[in-house]
Design brief:
alpha+beta; two-stranded antiparallel sheet; 12 strands; 15% strand
């Protein structure tokens, strides 16, 4: 009876603050001898799940979010977003050792200042489930949901890898990212571990999905906008670094996202929302608001399974309402859930262009070459020219040859250079060290 009461309280907290007139469904899965039977519960009657006659020979699971009524359990049928659930498995553990490991995990999660405090800590018997609950949100905000989920997974991995006693834990990322996936129903029997799945409330604060996204996923910088609509190639100023540097970074990110899609033959069903969200923010900061939707539609049309226009509108409206978003490189990469190590390295090592820097370098090179020509016409040797302009002898020779002014053979050039230095009062030993030639060779040059 106590388990039933606890299960009712939990279900009431996770699902019963939604708008009751919405016609959506929570799924319950009953696994018996390898066969899954699915039950549908309208969101307004979700508490009736606790009335099930739970058989000890079966495993019971529940979805964290709701789907369209009388539709199959598929991500395309997602209706409402209610909870994020992270599934953490524990391998090779037993008895009292397991209890201490669970307590350690709970301690480090509760006391981690970078991680939003989970609402519910579930001990499933063979692992842990962490639930974050927020007021019901539209499925159009899936890109926010996916962003938060990915960053929570990244932070939990950091915690687990940093603490030796937690090394047995492993996050089931596939299950955790599945927005319509099943998670073990708390206060039901786990037939594999032969234990009851229990749940503990850590906080009863109801999060807001948008506020959680904005507070946890990125730093939004206020940008002053004029009343004039942005036009093509209008660059939004970045508050931290120069606009020319930032536009170079944005171009790099645009290419990286396009390559990310192309390398997967545009079959990115599991990360379409996140890619499109990043792409929208990137294009906004590259060319202004006018061309953002067109760019989004062009990329979306290449996907093997394009997003609906309503999803594009939702992403677009959010990014534009914020006046553009700014991400650190680490956050930008963390949004992409299926990023390979090679792609991460490629992004971090790719150089960005800088128009001012490149222009200055070009001007300096032109001035150096002009000076080389001027000194060459005065009869100076390549060594003397190199010393005068501050470059290598090879650079001087290469440029003169490109101008059909490679006047001397190397030996002749060395001979003239040695004679010039000797006439300036340098000793044979000094000339030898300067030219990195033997003293005998220098003597032959001077005496001949």
């Amino acid at each position: 009876m106590e388990n039933v009461r606890s299960q009712v309280d939990l279900l009431n907290f996770l699902f019963c603050d939604c708008v009751k007139e919405y016609n959506s469904t929570v799924f319950v899965g009953c696994l018996n001898n390898g066969i899954m039977r699915e039950l549908r519960y309208p969101i307004r009657n979700v508490l009736k799940i606790a009335d099930l006659n739970f058989a000890g020979s079966c495993d019971y699971y529940v979805t964290a979010n709701s789907l369209k009524c009388n539709r199959p359990r598929h991500s395309d049928q997602l209706f409402g977003l209610h909870n994020i659930c992270i599934d953490i498995d524990l391998h090779n553990s037993d008895g009292s050792l397991s209890q201490k490991i669970f307590d350690d995990l709970r301690y480090f999660i509760v006391h981690d200042f970078e991680l939003p405090l989970p609402n519910v800590f579930v001990r499933t018997g063979r692992g842990v489930q962490l639930w974050w609950h927020f007021a019901e949100a539209s499925s159009k905000l899936l890109f926010m949901y996916q962003s938060i989920t990915q960053l929570i997974i990244n932070r939990l991995n950091d915690i687990i890898s940093a603490v030796d006693t937690l090394s047995g834990f492993n996050i089931d990322t596939t299950a955790s990212r599945n927005v319509v996936g099943y998670f073990r129903l708390p206060f039901t029997f786990n037939t594999k571990s032969r234990t009851m799945a229990t749940a503990e409330f850590l906080t009863e604060e109801v999060y807001n999905l948008v506020e959680l996204f904005e507070g946890y996923c990125y730093d939004v910088h206020s940008i002053a906008h004029s009343s004039v609509v942005a036009t093509s190639l209008q660059i939004q100023p970045h508050p931290q670094i120069g606009s020319k540097q930032y536009i170079s970074l944005v171009r790099k990110r645009k290419k990286f996202l396009e390559d990310y899609c192309a390398n997967r033959d545009y079959n990115i069903v599991g990360s379409r929302d996140l890619v499109m969200f990043l792409y929208c923010a990137t294009i906004y900061n590259l060319v202004g608001v006018n061309y953002v939707m067109l760019a989004m539609q062009q990329l979306n049309s290449r996907f093997t399974t394009p997003l609906r226009q309503s999803h594009l509108d939702s992403i677009y409206n959010y990014v534009v309402s914020k006046g553009g978003l700014r991400f650190t490189n680490a956050k930008f990469l963390d949004y992409l859930p299926f990023l390979t190590n090679l792609e991460r390295i490629s992004y971090n090592t790719a150089k960005t262009t800088n128009a001012t820097r490149d222009a200055n370098r070009k001007t300096a090179k032109e001035e150096r070459n002009r000076r080389i020509l001027e000194l060459a016409t005065q009869g100076m040797t390549t060594q003397q020219i190199a010393d005068a302009v501050g470059c290598s002898v090879r650079t001087v020779k290469t440029f003169l040859q490109s101008q059909n002014l490679g006047r001397f053979s190397r030996a002749e050039d060395n001979r003239l250079c040695a004679i010039s230095m000797h006439n300036d009062g340098m000793s044979i030993m000094e000339i030898s060290k300067k030219m990195k030639l033997s003293e005998w060779t220098i003597k032959q040059y001077i005496n001949n």
